[in-house]
Automatic annotation (TrEMBL):
<feature type="region of interest" description="Disordered">
    <location>
        <begin position="113"/>
        <end position="143"/>
    </location>
</feature>
<feature type="binding site">
    <location>
        <begin position="491"/>
        <end position="497"/>
    </location>
    <ligand>
        <name>(6S)-NADPHX</name>
    </ligand>
</feature>
<dbReference type="Pfam" id="PF01256">
    <property type="entry name" value="Carb_kinase"/>
</dbReference>
<comment type="similarity">
    <text>Belongs to the NnrD/CARKD family.</text>
</comment>
<dbReference type="GO" id="GO:0005524">
    <property type="term" value="F:ATP binding"/>
</dbReference>
<dbReference type="Pfam" id="PF13837">
    <property type="entry name" value="Myb_DNA-bind_4"/>
</dbReference>
<dbReference type="GO" id="GO:0046496">
    <property type="term" value="P:nicotinamide nucleotide metabolic process"/>
</dbReference>
<feature type="region of interest" description="Disordered">
    <location>
        <begin position="171"/>
        <end position="196"/>
    </location>
</feature>
<protein>
    <recommendedName>
        <fullName>ATP-dependent (S)-NAD(P)H-hydrate dehydratase</fullName>
        <ecNumber>4.2.1.93</ecNumber>
    </recommendedName>
</protein>
<comment type="function">
    <text>Catalyzes the dehydration of the S-form of NAD(P)HX at the expense of ATP, which is converted to ADP. Together with NAD(P)HX epimerase, which catalyzes the epimerization of the S- and R-forms, the enzyme allows the repair of both epimers of NAD(P)HX, a damaged form of NAD(P)H that is a result of enzymatic or heat-dependent hydration.</text>
</comment>
<dbReference type="InterPro" id="IPR029056">
    <property type="entry name" value="Ribokinase-like"/>
</dbReference>
<feature type="binding site">
    <location>
        <begin position="531"/>
        <end position="535"/>
    </location>
    <ligand>
        <name>ATP</name>
    </ligand>
</feature>
<feature type="binding site">
    <location>
        <begin position="550"/>
        <end position="559"/>
    </location>
    <ligand>
        <name>ATP</name>
    </ligand>
</feature>
<feature type="compositionally biased region" description="Acidic residues">
    <location>
        <begin position="120"/>
        <end position="132"/>
    </location>
</feature>
<keyword id="KW-0520">NAD</keyword>
<keyword id="KW-0521">NADP</keyword>
<dbReference type="InterPro" id="IPR044822">
    <property type="entry name" value="Myb_DNA-bind_4"/>
</dbReference>
Length: 632
């Protein structure tokens, strides 16, 4: 994982400091000291740098060190210490001084010369090849940095040789000549004539250093501006994407409100409120339900059972609604419309995150009889993208669940005398709770579970309830009633049980949409996910259908996979809800994502194993199903 970006050839300060720290290490210095062939040493430097998060080649490390040494000597020999100018010329002066002072004296002539130089040469032969190609800009190659705006400085740079003992320009010239006579670089083209030949060396030197520092400042300033502009461009792009999604959401709402409902006097979309005159009466319009679209009830919608009956019959005779939202074409369009919303809640995988940020999910369930269900839910949560998955189960079940997977954190507390306190300790660290897989129906376990749900509600944690958790809700609806982050995932059997517990009348099995909306409203608009041949999702205001292709294979545990996935997606959806259109319910988006994923896993596993497909095979498909649905 890279700690810092190493854009192009540029070295950031933090990267340079890390390089210096490595280069200054005792064993590196010893290996370099007097050793002509040192490519292996720079290979080691590059490797250690990579361990610190910065990817550079050994050659890049070598030229950077060489450049730093050159800057250091220029600053040192420019006698700029007293007026503090040395830091302008060599930002890392102090570090360099510390390292170099612990080594044998370095000949500054060597460091400034662009020819073969002590430990900065990566095996002599390579350096000779470099020298054989004179027309290239030696300064740029040596520093490994981008060109400065004031190239004039660079062009003059190699020509200025600064011998320690020289006192005037004539001597410099002689030194320079004598050097080039014997060096391999004598074949270089003639350098441009020095414009400052008449100036005393010291003032020329000072001027050069000032120009050089100024050029460097300019360069970094420009680079800062460029990066700022890039950040702004990226932000603008992101807001454009969000805006598009919001417009899409509004489109769904307005499509729904444009239905020609005869009694409607206004077409403004309003969220369905609970009936204020008769709290027990469900406020629904079943045929107002959309397949794959969000739907709001228009003002003037029925507010009681009697009104509903009349509304329902009008809707039945309304062909426009049937055509607009018929399954045939809307099925595909529904996926296209809602999947982008799910994709939008998936957090990006960026290196700045720490463990836990993408989700710490708790599963309450697992008893002597059922150890598979909590395992399926918990491992699914991890595979969908949560960072940590906790299982709170009975003592009996814990060892078994642990033995299935070392990835899970298993707490054998659910049947302990202080179960609620034990679990409550973890709640501040959890992002969502999945209650019910493999819970069983033991009185004491259900009582503990009920209290844990209450504590989670007070912490505003999304709570997904499945399996035996739904049995608990059927016995004591108040446990989840009115909690808007509550999501119930019944199969048909569980749904019937819930409906009949709430309405004290048999379920009308001919109209699932209406019944599901009624149940949601009766439970205070919790989100209901009625699983089946098609999955129906409603929060009492809207209904959407998930018609992702599945298979005919109905092995046990598929519902646990769904609830585990939903735990993670609910956390992601609520985390990104600030960026969502307000008419979109995060629970519904999360539910649609979890249903699509479960069904896609089923299809893929069935394709491989047919009738032999088991839930573990579906779990193996999570990665590729997720990519196919949400990463494309
Ligand atoms: N490997 C494990 O550890 C697993 C453990 N699990 C855990 O088991 C616990 C009990 O859960 P559960 O669903 O078996 O119990 P329950 O609600 O009494 O239903 C039982 C009866 O309801 C019926 N029925 C079911 N679906 C229906 C439908 N769609 N449509 C119509 N009818 C339907 C059906 O009746 P039948 O057809 O047999 O007459 C069935 O026999 C729970 O904690 C769960 O998490 C499971 O997750 C699986 C993997
Ligand atoms: N007839 C069907 N055709 C296609 N997919 C289905 C069908 N019935 C259920 N599913 C899918 O299977 C998944 C699990 O639903 P199921 O009804 O099996 O849950 P469950 O009974 O609670 O499961 P569990 O065995 O975990 O208790 C859901 O994603 C649902 O969409």
């Amino acid at each position: 994982m890279l700690l810092n970006s190493t854009r192009g050839f540029l070295w950031s300060d933090v990267e340079t400091r890390t390089l210096l720290k490595i280069w200054g290490e005792q064993d590196i210095q010893t290996a370099l000291d007097g050793n002509f062939r040192n490519s292996h040493v720079y290979r080691d430097v590059a490797r250690r740098l990579a361990e610190m998060g910065f990817e550079r080649t050994p050659e890049q490390c070598r030229v950077r060190i060489k450049s730093l040494k050159r800057q250091f000597v220029l600053a040192k020999e420019g006698n700029l210490r007293n007026n503090g100018q040395h830091h302008k010329i060599c930002k890392f002066y102090d570090a360099m001084e510390r390292i170099l002072s612990s080594r044998s004296q370095i000949d500054p002539q060597e460091l400034l010369d662009s020819g073969v130089v002590g430990d900065e040469t990566m095996d002599g032969t390579e350096e000779e090849e470099e020298e054989a190609d004179p027309p290239r800009d030696q300064y740029l190659e040596d520093t490994g940095e981008c060109s400065y705006p004031q190239t004039q400085v660079k062009m003059e740079y190699p020509a200025v040789v600064i011998p320690v003992t020289v006192e005037n320009s004539t001597t410099v010239k002689q030194t320079s000549n004598s050097h080039s006579a014997g060096s391999p670089s004598s074949s270089r083209p003639k350098r441009p004539k020095k414009r400052h030949a008449g100036l005393p060396l010291e003032s020329m030197m000072e001027r050069f250093l000032e120009q050089s520092a100024e050029a460097e400042q300019n360069f970094y300033h420009m680079e800062d501006q460029r990066l700022d502009a890039e950040d702004r461009r990226r932000e603008a792009e992101h807001s454009r994407e969000l805006h598009t999604l919001q417009v899409l959401g509004q489109m769904f709402s307005s499509i729904a409100t444009r239905n020609p409902v005869p009694v409607a006097t206004a077409t403004t979309a309003v969220p369905l409120a609970r009936n204020t005159t008769d709290p027990s009466a469900p406020t629904l319009a079943a045929n107002h339900v959309t397949r794959g679209y969000w739907s709001h009830l228009p003002v003037g919608s029925p507010q009681s059972h009697a009104e509903w009956a009349s509304f329902h019959s009008r809707q039945q005779s309304n062909p426009v609604i049937d055509r607009s939202f018929s399954i045939g074409s809307a099925a595909h369009r529904g996926m296209d419309d809602i999947l982008p919303l799910v994709k939008n809640i998936v957090p990006p995988l960026i290196s700045k995150k720490h463990k836990g940020q993408d989700g710490r999910i708790g599963i309450v369930g697992g008893c002597q009889e059922y150890t598979g269900a909590p395992y399926f839910a918990a491992i699914t949560a991890l595979k969908v993208g949560a960072d940590l998955s906790h299982v709170f189960c009975t003592k009996d079940a814990a060892t078994v669940i642990k033995s299935y997977s070392p990835e899970l954190i298993v707490h054998p507390v659910l049947d302990s005398p202080n179960a609620v306190e034990e679990i409550e300790k973890w709640l501040p660290r959890l992002h969502s709770l999945v209650v019910g897989p493999g819970l069983g129906r033991d009185e004491m376990l259900l009582k503990n579970t009920k209290e844990v749900i209450e504590k989670s509600k007070s912490r505003d944690i999304p709570v997904v309830i499945d399996a035996d958790g739904l049995w608990l809700v059927a016995q004591q609806p108040s446990v989840i009633q009115g909690y808007n982050k509550g999501i119930l995932t019944p199969n048909y059997m569980e749904f019937t049980r819930l409906y009949e517990a709430m309405h004290h009348e048999p379920l009308d099995s001919s109209d699932h949409q209406r019944s599901a909306m009624e149940l949601s409203v009766a439970l205070g608009n919790v989100t209901i996910v009625l699983k089946g041949e098609e999955d129906l999702i409603t929060d009492g205001n809207k209904v959407i259908w998930c018609q992702q292709k599945g298979s005919g294979r109905r092995c046990g545990g598929q519902g646990d996979l769904l609830s585990g996935a939903l735990g993670v997606l609910a956390h992601w959806a609520y985390t990104s809800s600030a960026n969502m259109n307000k008419s979109i319910n995060p629970s519904v988006v999360a539910a649609f994502g979890a249903c699509s994923l479960t069904r896609q896993c089923n299809t893929q596993a069935f394709h491989k194993y047919g009738r032999a497909t088991v839930t573990s095979d579906m779990i193996q498909e999570i990665s590729s199903a997720f990519k196919k649905l949400f990463d494309s």
